[in-house]
Specification:
alpha+beta
Length: 585
């Protein structure tokens, strides 16, 4: 390697010109512009003291002292920086292989020792970003031992720091409504609560109707309630104790509200704290609303309404979390005048849709493409329409309230008011209710306006009979295409079961029924496309099939925390005269 170039640096002597240094400009071709006023010496250059400095050295000179200072070459630090970066990357990757911070059932990661702070490079930032984007969602179930049929597992190291879901979700806030708007903060006065009929005219309502149905009736703005409301404010009470006692119209539904609230599944179905915790764990940051106390501001509003919502499945592209109950249509009917549809609109989900469920609700991708009406618009309408004493009628209405992110306890729920002939603990479907009471067949495709009116019709029947109603004949289901899942923990959601079957069996369920809880454990039915699909899914699950007390086979599927759920067949393999195995406990 050729030797570095040599340069000479001249240093003035201390006794030259009375201690003055030679002017650098005077020795140049252009000369010094200060002339005699220059503070430096204009004369012959002194005998130099020569210092040889390599090209790779950096030099700092001082005009006041004329000193020469040298510092080490910058190239000497490069190997150290590279080593430090490599050490940091290796230690971070090794720690993340042991601790999965995105797994809610895994052990909490230990706090790493503090490392000396280093200037992050673009390469490190790129790696850190890729690690944070490799989050695989919120799966509760343990991975199957045999992964031959399971999707490939992403083994890319993850960042030690937990990603903040709020930072990503803030970018997905709806632009139509202010983010920090609080509908329940102000006192319920006519000045700050808009009339719900005027509000509808300002909202970007997207009308929709299923072929074969007449669609929504026009809203009659001249209609007024037949019962005069009291002008006195209702006394504050606990949410679970609020009853519709302030108006004559509300008191008509009083017994239906009380009976719904006394049902054994009410506490679990209307446990809004559990839904909020589940939403927070899944990264759903939408705000929840609660209606204001009754007062003059709502005296002219309908005191009872019937609602029904249609849902689709959406997925967060950042975290991979799915929302199986994303609101995509809302219908609200005046319970005092069922022909009056107060609102019927499609709703734009905040996350991309992964399953429109067109086979159930008739809503397709093209129907939602240009929709501007959002969940926050729906919440604004409900806050303008409802007080905490407004009776909300529906079938399994807690599902509709959860889709709206609305906490409300003054409800008359037809699924809690009627019971099945073959089981006092099982709920009946709206289709069976209508067929049994009114001898009318409901269509397979759901229309939310029609469903809201039919649920209202059933509850009205209960009110007219003062609760003395007949038991309901349930339609025989094709149980061969279903599997029964029980011992479900409260933190589990329907999409967790769907993902579990896909990961363990590669067989996708057609639908998962809402969970029914008793104490801390829930149960549900999982429906597949055919009995063959259900049988294949059960047979592919790992573990030994054991008969329960009824002789039906079941298997254990383990969670990440070591607990398990049971998956059971709906049909028994045993026949009369066939010896049965001893049932497992």
């Amino acid at each position: 390697m050729p030797s570095a170039k040599k340069y000479k640096l001249h240093k003035s002597t201390d006794n030259n010109g009375g201690g003055k240094a030679v002017c650098a400009f005077w020795t140049s071709p252009d000369g010094c512009r200060n002339g005699d006023k220059c503070a430096f010496l204009h004369g012959a250059a002194p005998s130099p003291c020569v210092a040889e400095i390599s090209e790779t050295a950096s030099v700092v000179s001082s005009e006041s002292e004329g000193e020469v200072r040298s510092r080490p070459s910058l190239t000497n630090n490069k190997p150290n920086n590279n080593n430090n970066n490599n050490n940091n990357n290796n230690s971070s990757g090794g720690m993340n292989k042991k601790n999965d911070v995105s797994d809610p059932f895994a052990m909490s990661p230990t706090t790493p020792k503090e490392q000396p702070r280093q200037e992050p490079t673009s390469k490190n930032n790129k790696k850190r970003k890729s690690r944070s984007n490799s989050k695989s969602g919120d799966d509760l179930f343990a991975n199957p031992k045999d992964k031959a049929h399971a999707p490939p597992v992403n083994k890319k190291p993850k960042s030690v720091e937990k990603p903040n879901p709020n930072a990503a979700n803030q970018k997905r806030q709806d632009l139509h409504t202010p983010k920090n708007q609080d509908f329940s903060a102000a006192a319920p006065t006519p000045a700050n609560v808009p009339d719900f009929r005027n509000l509808v005219a300002k909202l970007p309502v997207a009308s929709f109707s299923i072929p074969g149905f007449g669609g929504a009736a026009a809203v009659d703005n001249s209609k007024t309630p037949t019962n005069e409301a009291k002008n006195t404010e209702s006394a504050p009470t606990e949410p679970g104790q609020i009853l519709p006692t302030s108006t004559a119209e509300g008191r008509k539904w009083l017994n239906a509200v009380k009976s719904s609230r006394s049902h054994e599944r009410y506490a679990s179905a209307f446990d809004f704290a559990r839904y909020k915790e589940a939403n927070a764990a899944a990264g759903l940051t939408s705000e929840w609303i609660k209606a204001k106390p009754f007062g003059k501001w709502c005296a002219s509003n309908p005191q009872a309404i019937a609602i029904d919502c249609e849902m689709c499945e959406t997925q967060d592209p950042l975290s991979g979390t799915k929302n199986p109950k994303a609101l995509c249509r809302l219908s609200v009917v005046n319970a005092e005048n069922p022909e009056e549809v107060l609102l019927d609109t499609l709703v734009k989900p905040s996350w991309p849709v992964t399953d429109y469920r067109t086979r159930i609700n008739g809503i397709g991708k093209e129907d939602l493409e240009k929709v501007e009406f959002t969940v926050r618009h729906a919440q604004a309408f409900m806050m303008a329409l409802c007080s905490e004493e407004t009776v909300i009628v529906g079938h399994a209405v807690h599902n509709d309230l959860v889709a709206l992110n609305m906490e409300h306890h003054c409800v008359a729920d037809s699924s809690f008011l009627f019971f099945a002939k073959d089981s006092t603990t099982s709920s009946v479907s709206l289709k069976d209710l209508v067929a049994s009471i009114f001898k009318v067949e409901m269509p397979d495709t759901h229309d939310s306006v029609n469903d809201a009116r039919k649920a209202l019709q059933c509850v009205r029947h209960w009110v007219e009979k003062d609760g003395d109603v007949e038991t309901i004949e349930r339609t025989a289901k094709h149980k061969g295409n279903q599997l029964f899942v029980h011992r479900i923990p409260k933190q589990c959601q329907t999409h967790h079961l769907t993902n579990m079957f896909l990961k363990h069996t590669s067989v996708e369920p057609l639908s998962v029924d809402d969970f029914e809880y008793a104490a801390d454990m829930g149960k549900t039915h999982v429906t597949f496309r055919s009995a063959r699909h259900a049988s294949l899914a059960f047979d592919t699950l790992e573990g030994t099939a054991e008969p329960d007390k009824s002789g039906r086979l079941q298997k254990k599927v383990f969670l990440r925390n070591g607990d398990y759920v049971r998956v059971r067949k709906m049909t028994s393999p045993f026949h009369r005269g066939t010896p049965q195995k001893t049932p497992s406990k």
